[in-house]
């Protein structure tokens, strides 16, 4: 990768650090899901219900946000990710598409890791901001209409694939992962086919390999998939231009 932009990397890295400091506040802002009320007891024989294995209670978002060290860890992850984007893109308008997703991605990764949930309260605004940023960059940058077509196909490919996986085996994949795949498909599709395909493949690879290692080391069976999807998307964005350069020069 020859065209690197260290000055832009410093600028975006500082922005990423500042945004990462706000990640705990972003997590605490999410309202807790309303617990389902148990249905009325059935009248009749009065038999005792069968004992069920109690599920582990979900960690509260406020408790996650207050965890020691989360501020500097989130700031570091956000700063490094943003710096990597600036190093690859330079002063490119596409930074407006991917940079806003950095602190949101860090927050989603933390939440999914702690709760195995990807709240719609974060993913829905990410959808809106990503679509708006793509349209603004397309108009201001006078981009080709094919870029919008590729963006839509990216959403269809990534989102459609995960929707199919969820439909076939819903116990193995949460619908929050399906929503997240749609956002990532939009952003990666806008950047290019190499970024899209590499981001999808790396997400699946990291989810399989690192997920297995985490399960082995931490003895944790219910590993979330969202953090690996987001990490794979970052790898796809950073290495995508290298793949394109090798194929097209």
What does this structure look like?
By secondary structure, the protein is mainly alpha-helical. It is 71% helix and 0% strand. Helix 2 (23-29) crosses helix 6, helix 8 runs antiparallel to helix 9 (175-191) and helix 9 packs parallel to helix 11. It starts with 5 loop residues before the first helix and ends with a helix. Mean pLDDT is 87; it is low at 41-54.
Rg, Å, rounded: 20 Å
Kindly name the structural category: mainly alpha
Q: Spans with pLDDT under 50 lasting ≥5 residues?
A: 41-54
Q: Could you tell me the number of beta strands? A: 0
Give the CA-based shape: globular
SSE pattern, N- to C-terminal: HHHHHHHHHHH
Arithmetic mean pLDDT: 87
The helical percent reads over 70%
Cα separation of the termini: 11 Å
Q: Largest beta sheet, briefly?
A: none
- Helix count, per DSSP? 11
Strand content: under 5%
Give the SSE layout.
Elements: H1 6-21, H2 23-29, H3 61-65, H4 70-89, H5 95-98, H6 101-115, H7 120-140, H8 145-168, H9 175-191, H10 193-218, H11 226-248
Notable characteristics:
249 residues; 11 helices
Summarize the structure.
This protein is an all-alpha fold. The chain has helices at 6-21, 23-29, 61-65, 70-89, 95-98, 101-115, 120-140, 145-168, 175-191, 193-218, 226-248.
């Amino acid at each position: 990768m020859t065209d690197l932009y260290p000055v832009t990397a410093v600028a975006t890295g500082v922005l990423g650090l500042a945004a990462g400091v706000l990640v705990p506040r972003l997590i605490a802002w999410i309202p807790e899901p309303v617990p389902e009320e148990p249905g009325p007891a059935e009248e009749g024989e009065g038999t005792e219900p069968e004992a069920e294995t109690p599920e582990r209670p979900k960690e509260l978002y406020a408790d996650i946000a207050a965890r020691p060290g989360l501020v500097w860890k989130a700031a570091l992850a956000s700063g490094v990710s943003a710096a990597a984007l600036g190093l690859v893109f330079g002063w490119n308008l596409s930074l407006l598409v991917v940079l806003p997703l950095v602190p949101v991605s860090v927050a989603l990764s933390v939440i999914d890791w702690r709760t195995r949930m990807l709240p719609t309260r974060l993913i829905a605004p990410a959808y809106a901001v990503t679509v708006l940023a793509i349209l603004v960059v397309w108009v201001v940058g006078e981009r080709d209409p094919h870029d919008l077509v590729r963006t839509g196909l990216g959403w269809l490919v990534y989102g459609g694939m995960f929707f199919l996986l969820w439909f076939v085996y819903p116990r193995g994949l949460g619908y929050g992962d399906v929503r997240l795949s749609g956002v990532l498909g939009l952003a990666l599709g806008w950047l290019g086919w190499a970024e899209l395909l590499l981001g999808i493949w790396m997400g699946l690879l990291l989810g399989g390999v690192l997920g297995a290692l985490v399960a082995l080391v931490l003895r944790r069976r219910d590993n979330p998939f969202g953090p690996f999807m987001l990490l794979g998307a970052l790898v796809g964005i950073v290495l995508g231009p290298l793949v394109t350069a090798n194929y097209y020069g």
